[in-house]
Amino acid sequence: MLEVPPPLPRWMNVIYPFSWQVWTATLVTLLLTALTFHVMNYQQEKSFVTNLITVGQGLLSNPLDTVPKDWRARYFLLLWWILSWLLELSYLCNLIAVLTIPVFPKRIHAAQELADSNYRVCMLDYGEFVAEAMPASTHPTLAALGAKLDLVPVLEHLPNAGEEGCVELVLKGTHSHLETYSYLIYLYSKLGHSSTVYHLKEQLYSAYLAFPVQKDAPWKYKFDVGMQRLFESGLIKRWMKEAMAESLGGAIHEDSSSVSVTSSLSVGHLQGPFLVLIFGILGASLVILGEILIYSRKKKSF
Questions:
Q1: Measured in whole angstroms, how far is the alpha carbon of residue 15 from the centre of its chain?
Q2: How far apart are the first and last CA of the chain?
Q3: In Å, how far are 127, 157, 211, 225, 253 from 215, measured between CA atoms?
């Protein structure tokens, strides 16, 4: 069991719609397109910066004042504008989703990811064999997890015999809690933390239900077949969930990965776009100021 990571800063909402690979590919494509357009449009004797601005206008939906005279350059620019339109449409759709639903960091769902992370592992020291088996395991992932396993002492005077120590470490964001799957769901639901934690999809080992019967009983194979059918159909899991929910007096939340939106967009959601607007206005003001200074100097020289 791990703590649900907090959402990423809202002021970076303008970056989240695309991954860093897409941003890098877009930037490289923009430079290559500008270079190609500069080579194709060499007869107009314009600088590379001017052609770069012309190509960049496509990404910003800024109309062009003039078009190239060469028909090949015109068709090339047309293809670039179509690609720019697709990128703008994709970015806008993803931006709407990002502004509506908070963006969370990528979660850990595999034991290898947990071993490679900065999380330590916490477990109650009640004599479970896992605490000794993991450090001595020949499996590199289990050995890595066992190397950073911290045991919490059993405290009989506490309601959960000391499991509260691991729960506290999980809520601090420093540890993951290692325990039986169903008991973890029951424990965190009982303590009221089911909405702030999530469990790994990958489990260390499977646990099966077992019923002791007399050795060499003639009807044992019938019982085994029936139990296997109940297990594979999911009925045992459902009955277990209903039993835990009944004992807790409510529903069991096994995973909090789903996010429901119940509020309208606020200024907080729009931090990123507003910051881009502010920086854009400041940048445009500096450009205008620079143009005024350059124009005034040229006028004085004449």
A1: 14
A2: 75
A3: 29, 40, 12, 17, 40
CA distance 121 to 108: 13
pLDDT 10s digits, 23-55: 999 999 999 998 988 888 777 677 888 888 888
Q: How far is CA 243 from CA 62, 238, 246, in A?
A: 62, 9, 5
Residue 16 to residue 276: CA distance in whole angstroms: 14
187 within 8 A of 198, measured Cβ to Cβ: no
Please answer whether residues 176 and 198 qualify as being in contact, where contact means their C-beta atoms are separated by less than 8 angstroms: no
Dihedral of the CA atoms 202, 171, 250, 211 (nearest 10)? 40
Q: What is this structure's pTM?
A: 0.57
Domains in the chain, ordered, with CATH?
A: 17-102 (1.10.287), 111-221+232-248 (3.40.190)
pLDDT band at 262; cut points 50, 70, 90 = low
Token pair belonging to 171: 């809520």
CA distance 19 to 41: 32
CA distances from 100 to 10, 86, 88, 256, 266 (A): 11, 22, 18, 18, 10
pLDDT at 158 > cutoff 50? yes
